[in-house]
Amino acid sequence: MNIAFLLLPKQDVAYVFESFTVRQALEKMKYHGYQSIPMLNKEGKYVGTISEGDLLWAILDWQREGTVDLEKRSLADVPLRTQHEAVSVYDDVQTVLDRSVDQNFISVKDDAGFFIGIIRRKDIIEFLTKQVDTKQPNVS
Predict the structure, then answer these.
(1) What distance in Å separates the CA atoms of residue 68 and residue 76, rounded to the nearest whole number?
(2) Which residues does residue 51 pair with via DSSP β-bridges, in sequence order?
(3) What is the dihedral of CA 83, 85, 86, 91, to 10 degrees?
C-alpha cells in the first residue's frame, strides 16, 4: 500500500533551511510549538530533522568556546545528534510504521531527494484505528 494518502504536503508543513540562523529556527519552532522541524538545503532537498536538543547542545558548546551569536550562526553549524532518514513516497506503510516508533513525524522525499512533506504519527494512529474499527465485529 502506498503511503501518499498519509502525506501532509510541503505547503502545509513548517520547515527551515540550513542557511537559516539559529535564532530564526528557534523563533519558527516556538511559533509553531514544535520540538523538531525538517531542515532543507537551498535546493529544497531534505538534509535532516533538527531538534530543540540539537540547538541547545550547540549553543552550550558555542558558549564554552565564547562564540555564541544566534543571529550569525547558521543551522549548517549545528550537529544533528540523531539522523532521521526521510522515506520515499513509494515506500510501504510498514516502513513508515517502523520509523514512527521513534519519531513524531517522518519526512518524505521524491525520487530526486526533494522534500515533499511529512507523515505525522497522529495521522498513522488515526489510520490504524479506522482499520481496526472496520474489521471489528459489532459486539452488541
Answers:
(1) 15
(2) 36
(3) -150
Residue 56's pLDDT is: 94
pLDDT of residue 51: 96
Q: What is the distance of C-alpha 59 from the center of its chain?
A: 21
pLDDT lower than 70: segments of the chain:
1, 136-140
Domains of the chain: 4-135 (3.10.580.10)
Nine cell digits for residue 112: 530526486
Torsion over CA: 69, 36, 101, 43 (sign):
negative
Alpha-carbon span 43 to 17, nearest angstrom: 9
Residue 112 has φ and ψ, to the nearest 5°, of -90, 0
Residue 116: φ, ψ to 5°: -120, -5
Minimal CA–CA distance to 55: which of 33, 27, 32? Answer: 27
DSSP state letter for 17? E
